[in-house]
Amino acid sequence: MSKYARRIQKVGSSILISLPNQWIKFNHLKKGATLLVEINKDNSISVFPSADANEVAKSVTIPYSHESIDNMINQIYGAYLLGYDIIKIKAKRQISFEHSESIKFALRKLVGLEIVDENTSNIESQFLIDTNSLDAAKILKRMNTIVAGMYRDILDVFVSKNFGIAKLMISRDDEVDRQYFLLVRLIRSTMMDQKLARKLNLSNIDILDYRIAANHLESAGDHMVEFASSLPYLYEMDLHETLKEVCSCLEEMQFKSVTAFINKSSTESIRVAKMYDEFNRLMDVVKKMVSREDQRSSNSNLALLNSIYSLNNLARLWVDVADLVKPAYLITPLGSV
Question: Across the beta sheet with 122-127, what order do the strands follow?
Answer without folding.
Answer: 59-63, 86-90, 122-127, 113-119
